[in-house]
Amino acid sequence: MAATTTASSAQTVKTPSVSIQSPFRRTMRRLLQHRSAQIGLVLLGFIFLVALLADVISPYTYEDQIREGGVKPRAVPCIHALGCEPEKPQLWMGLDSNRRDILSRVIHGSRLSLQIGFVTTALSLVVGTLLGAIAGYAGETIDNLIMRTMDIFQAFPSLLLAIAIVTVLGTGLINTLLAVAIVSIPTYARIVRAAVMSVKELEYINASRALGASPMRILFTRLLPNSMTPVIIAGTLGVAGTILEAAGLSFLGLGAQPPLPEWGLMLGEERASVFSAPHLLVFPGLAIVITVLAFNLLGDGLRDALDPRNKA
Amino acid sequence: MGQFIIRRLFLLVFVVIGIFAVTFALARLIPGDPCTAMLGEKATPDKCAAFNERFGLNDSIPVQFARYLQNMTRGDFGQSIKDARNVTDIIAERLPMTIELTIFATLISAIIGVALGVVSSVRQNSAIDVISMIFANAGVSIPIFWLGLMLAYFFAITLAGTFLQLPPSARITPGADLPNLLKLWKMEDSTGLQRFGTIFLSNSYLLNAMIQGKWEIMWDALKHLILPSIAVATVSTSIIARMTRGAMLDVFTQDYVRVARAKGLSERMVVLRHAFRNALVPIVTVIGLQFGGLLGGAVLTETTFGLPGVGTKLIDAISSRDYPVVQAFTVVIALLLVLVNLLVDISYAYLNPRIRVQ
What we know:
The complex is a heterodimer of chains A (312) and B (358).
Chain A: H1 2-14, H2 16-20, H3 23-33, H4 35-52, H5 54-57, H6 102-138, H7 140-154, H8 158-169, H9 173-200, H10 203-210, H11 215-223, H12 228-251, H13 263-269, H14 279-306
Helix pairs in contact in A: 3-14, 4-6, 4-14, 6-7, 6-9, 6-12, 6-14, 7-9, 8-9, 9-12, 12-13, 12-14, 13-14
Chain B: H1 2-29, H2 34-39, H3 45-54, H4 61-73, H5 87-122, H6 127-139, H7 144-158, H8 181-184, H9 192-203, H10 205-211, H11 215-252, H12 255-262, H13 267-305, H14 310-319, H15 323-351, H16 353-357
Helix pairs in contact in B: 1-15, 5-6, 5-9, 5-11, 5-13, 5-15, 6-11, 7-11, 7-13, 10-11, 11-13, 12-13, 13-15, 14-15
């Protein structure tokens, strides 16, 4: 760290423009130049916009049953520009078994998925970070106690553990959020613990200690801020993972309950129609893929932009 | 090496006890009491008292836990409340399906993932590299239950009539004649490990068909496995491909690879003998780590393809509050996972001598 500081200050003399860039701006610049991050950000921007404007852009509410023009349940998509009879209502993605407009449901579903992704990740990130930081900083008995508990939780496949927790808490969207959050805690705890342990023996921590800073102060103002990089990356990728996992639980009927337009639930409700009306399943699935892909791409970009080995 | 394994086994004991404690606690925490759940309308206080007495639900929690541990060590998982059958029998029936699925998925993802990763690293930034990395990115973003449905539609409907047509559900074509070994060998009265083994073998359709020499049925069962295996394997194929590529690229920058090239070794030798061997440690680890995900994926995929495996039974048992079944299946799955992790650790030590001595 010391070496790079001197190097950059030596450079300052020749090229002052470099020194103006804060680490934040440097990272942002690198992120914006990263191909997959660009794609991820564009996709995310689009999804956020859709979620924000859901009520304005969706042709119906997610519960409306459509009967105009004699359309039947599970009607195939009908797009006027592509030669569909004008007396029938325009249906971009068709109708589901309950005569509801799939496009409107997919649009409203984006709100649910983003909420699930962010709330769940935030929850597990906060708890995981705290546990990991305490384990890493305290060491010895407390470390062992926390990490062995995490080991036991990780002995179960995450989806199965989530299923088991939902069983205890009861089905429903909120409980699914909790289950998926609990299941992801060990990942964050592990990452933060490793980061804290690698930072805690550095000189500036010793200096703080010598100045009489309390352990809490050292932990929260010195250790944690300097251990955040891997957490930010894991968190971004974690949003993708939690959206998938929650969709899986809803698919199994344990998560969001009808009539909510949750994408996984939409797939679960209509899975028997796969051979007779595949269009009921194509669009909610694609919506999940695009959303999850966007977070994954952004996470990859962040990893490359924040990776210290990349700073050359 | 022996010492290393012993130490790992010792640590394992604690994890296993922890697993028992967690599953026991989970089953106890399920809301609603099993008596009303099982007997429904007929659940009079009298009947419930008898019910609780019969299943030992009146004893204190520590007593129940001790009895639970004791029974576990004898391989006795109790009686299913719903079917009034031995849970051990149900495990023997359901487990083979899930294991078949997981093994096939592991094979697919390991072979394709490693191959893609190696080729991408050798031809870094080529069209092959870019395309396979795009696939790898998409692969981790696809919900496998959806992919399963789409594959089922594509291979059973779109490709119907062609030689690529594949069955979209069930384990074998309905009506196929594959006798139950328990009946065939007249072992209905057997008990213990023998019974477990026979039921297990009987429900491993591939092995069963092989034993009975019914090759068409084996081929049929294999065809039924293809689509679910691909669906389960997708995520791990992507992860393994990315890890392999990264590990290989890392190794390529090492001095001894440059030395090997300078010696004039063929590129083939450099890649396979020098680079790949040393990239194997992270690759084997990641393949092993995928196992848990594969098991979880198997649960979703079984539902998609209507397969009678551990996952479908677990979901069924959860909705009917069948404590013993939920408990037993969770334990079995966790133990499987622990076992695989142990194998990964051992192979890790085998591949990297430095770990052995530490």
